[in-house]
């Protein structure tokens, strides 16, 4: 194997992110799927992976060769090694809980399953949080005149909490929602002196993506919370965070997302308080 070929998952991930803008459309499609579903890539067949990603099996081979591998099987070994290296205690626990639930272990197994999934999500974001990005987001939001909060569907509870907490901290904010359909009018007031927190996960809410696009065209800086480097939100964001939420029985929690949202909100409040204190001094 060529020395320049990625030999571990993190190097592979970095390589894909560096090349994402230049990848052909179908290659970029499977690249996004691979980063979002690494476990499926590790153990799926070429046919099953291609079907799930919506591409032809030959695209997998082209994807692997684009990264320097001699074939898809060689690329797949990197994804399998990731699973072997990862601390799998919570993953094993989730698998056991799923089995218990399927065996009729009762409703307690469902509760335990969601607790284990939440723990997995929190451990993951704790280990992956980029501190420089975190500080940059805090600085950006702390100097905003108004913080707009944008989210729909599954992400909406997080947006609602952020708006509530910002209000309690006496920070001017606007949750972009309107029963009268006035979202566009709300967004029109946002200026480069403001900032936006936008949240969306796959399958991305079309309204969130469209409103984020409009806001970015108004040169309003965006802090995005999403689940993939290929998320359409990432392209509009000044700073963005990738949050991977574990699921139980197909239901994803918002534990890691809520923890990040709480930390950002409180840290912004502290930053503004410190800045105000220095001005008085």
TrEMBL record:
InterPro entries (UniProt xref): Homeodomain-like_sf, HTH_RpiR, RpiR-like, RpiR-like_SIS, SIS_dom, SIS_dom_sf, WH-like_DNA-bd_sf
UniProt keyword annotation of Chaperone present: no
Domain HTH rpiR-type stretches: 10-86
Residue span(s) of domain SIS: 137-278
Keyword Transmembrane helix found: no
CDD domains: SIS_RpiR (cd05013)
Pfam families hit by this protein: HTH_6, SIS
Keywords, sorted A to Z: DNA-binding, Transcription, Transcription regulation
Name under which the protein is recorded: Predicted transcriptional regulator of the myo-inositol catabolic operon
Source organism phylogeny: Bacteria, Pseudomonadati, Pseudomonadota, Alphaproteobacteria, Hyphomicrobiales
């Amino acid at each position: 194997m060529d020395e320049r070929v990625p030999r571990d998952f993190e190097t592979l991930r970095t390589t894909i992110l560096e090349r994402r803008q230049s990848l052909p459309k179908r290659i970029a499609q499977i690249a996004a799927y691979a980063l979002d579903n690494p476990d499926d890539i590790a153990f799926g067949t070429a046919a099953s992976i291609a079907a799930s990603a919506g591409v032809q099996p030959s695209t997998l081979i082209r994807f692997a060769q684009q990264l320097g591998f001699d074939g898809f099987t060689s690329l797949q070994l990197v994804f399998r090694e990731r699973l072997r290296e990862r601390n799998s205690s919570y993953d094993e626990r989730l698998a056991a809980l799923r089995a218990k639930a399927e065996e009729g272990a009762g409703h307690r197994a469902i509760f335990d399953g969601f607790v284990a999934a939440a723990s997995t999500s929190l451990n993951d974001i704790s280990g992956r949080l980029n501190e420089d990005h975190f500080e940059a987001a805090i600085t950006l939001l702390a100097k905003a005149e108004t913080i707009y909060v944008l989210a729909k569907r599954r992400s909406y509870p997080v947006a609602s909490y952020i708006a509530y907490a910002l209000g309690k901290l006496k920070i001017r904010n606007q949750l972009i929602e309107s029963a009268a359909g006035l979202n566009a009018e709300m967004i029109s007031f946002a200026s480069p002196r403001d900032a936006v927190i936008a949240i969306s996960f796959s399958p991305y809410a079309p309204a969130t993506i469209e409103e984020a696009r409009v806001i970015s065209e108004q040169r309003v800086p965006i802090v995005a919370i999403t689940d993939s480097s290929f998320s359409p939100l990432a392209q509009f964001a000044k700073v963005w965070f990738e949050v991977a939420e574990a699921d139980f029985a197909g239901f994803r929690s918002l534990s890691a997302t809520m923890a990040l949202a709480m930390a950002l909100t409180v840290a912004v409040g502290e930053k503004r308080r410190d800045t105000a204190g220095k001005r008085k001094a």
